[in-house]
Amino acid sequence: MSDKQDITFDEVKEAKDSLEAGGKRATIRAVREQLGGRGSHATIVKMLKKLQGGAEMPGDEPALPKEIIEPVHAALRKALGIARGEIQEQALRQVAEARAAADLDVEEAALACDEATSRLA
Prior knowledge:
Largest sheet: none
Number of strands: 0
Low-confidence stretches: 56-60
Helix content: over 70%
């Protein structure tokens, strides 16, 4: 059986009221736990928002204005790009070092092979 079984509006209201009567906040997780793990988060959110007249839910991330979100997203994208570039540079350096070490090993093995061949001749 799925842990996201259908729930009713009345069940969510009852769970919310029960939590609040016990002095607890009616967060999405708390309501879902009160419902025995039933109901999807999306369904619970929709019903709780309806119960609260569309207000933000306790435990939800607060809505921030675009004027804040967009510059933060841009800064994070830039930082991520820089980090990716640094990681790629480091990986390329490590590959180059490994390749150089392998080339030396191959050259050393070829010289050892040449010496062994000349001794046998």
